[in-house]
Specification:
Number of helices: 14
Order of helices and strands: HHHHHEEHHHHHHHHH
CATH superfamily: ABC transporter involved in vitamin B12 uptake, BtuC
Shape: globular
Distance between the termini: 24 Å
Number of strands: 2
Strand content: under 5%
Structural class: mainly alpha
């Protein structure tokens, strides 16, 4: 068997730069796609004009289509994809289960329930939906964690079953709440629940970006400890890992990332399952590399999925959650069968 190369800072930086370059190309292409096609050269010129403040000679297509419509949506897809992927990688590490994912575990459904309750109770308080989504996600993580323990140890299949049951219960409560909404609001929330990146943001994109990357950074500080936790809590404790601190940071961080994503885009499934698994196959399971790779890979994946959702049957848009489920559900079945085998 060939020796596994030790992870170096050079490799982490190299892989991150490679994925970052792919992300830039994918984002530039995505900004140009739509009912009105815009060339990559025109997109680059438009972004350069905006960056330099030279807006006097900016065309209407550049101002209205690129800067006002498509660029914010692509940046939102970048943030949501990165958040869900890192949350999935963190949950997989702590639960020692490659099938763990905010959507599969019911965390996204719990966050969606909290956000919808806030929309009904306090419709004029935009930050209330984020706070309520965080509480819903955190309660769901705690419930699934305790329900998934058997004999003091986490059982993979009990954990998945607890997640499925939690998601079903929260979905039923959401359906009940939606029956009390007016028809106009009902249609909007139904589309949002399937994954929608076109809804108005409750906060400025800059604040959302800051919160997302700070939370990802907090989870990354535990990456070395997550490597040791993959062998088991007892072994990690003997090696000096403060498992309580690591659990607190990752569970809180994963719940916050899920809440941020769900509150602005609805429940988009399988990104947190598919992307960390692909990154693990490509670059290994060292979380010092897996976390940044998952963040960049999740951003790439969701931008591609959203671009397809906008263009496959244009001018009609598909929910982006439908596009991720088309790929993610078969992968989940494959991973489950391989784990059972």
């Amino acid at each position: 068997m060939a020796a596994v190369k030790p992870l170096t800072l050079r490799r982490v930086v190299g892989v991150s730069l490679l994925l970052g370059a792919v992300l830039l190309v994918v984002a530039a292409v995505a900004v140009g796609l739509g009912p009105v096609s815009i060339s990559a050269r025109a997109v680059g010129g438009c972004l350069l004009q905006a960056a330099t403040g030279n807006t006097q000679h900016m065309s209407n297509d550049c101002r209205l289509i690129v800067l006002d419509l498509r660029l914010p949506r692509v940046l939102l897809a970048l943030l949501v994809g990165a958040a869900l992927s890192v949350a999935g990688a963190g949950f997989q590490a702590l639960l020692r289960n490659p099938l763990a994912d905010p959507y599969v575990l019911g965390v996204s459904s719990g966050a969606a329930l909290g956000a919808i309750l806030a929309m009904i109770v306090a419709p004029n308080a935009p930050l209330a939906s984020m706070g309520a989504a965080f509480v819903g996600a955190l309660v769901t993580v705690a419930a699934v964690y305790f329900l998934g323990r058997r004999g003091g140890q986490l059982d993979s299949y009990t954990l998945l079953l607890a997640g499925v049951i939690s998601a079903s219960f929260f979905s039923a409560v959401i359906m009940f709440l939606m029956t009390s909404l007016p028809g106009r609001d009902l249609r909007g929330i139904t589309f949002w629940l399937m994954g929608d990146l076109s809804a108005p943001l409750p906060v400025r994109l800059g604040w959302l970006m800051l919160a997302t990357w700070l939370t990802i950074g907090a989870i990354y500080t535990t990456s070395a400890d997550l490597n040791l936790l993959s062998a088991g809590e007892r072994e990690a404790t003997h090696l000096g890992v403060n498992t309580g601190r690591v659990k607190l940071i990752v569970y809180l961080g994963g719940s916050l990332l899920t809440a941020l994503a769900v509150s602005v885009s609805g429940a988009i499934g399988y990104i947190g399952l598919l992307v960390p698994h692909v990154m693990r196959m490509l670059f290994g399971s060292d979380y010092r590399l897996l976390i940044p790779a998952s963040a960049l890979g999740g951003a790439i994946a969701l931008i591609v999925a959203d671009s397809l959702a906008r263009t496959v049957i244009a001018p009609t848009e598909l929910p982006v959650g439908a596009m991720t489920a088309i790929v993610g559900a078969p992968v989940f079945i494959y991973l489950l069968r391989r784990k059972l085998g």
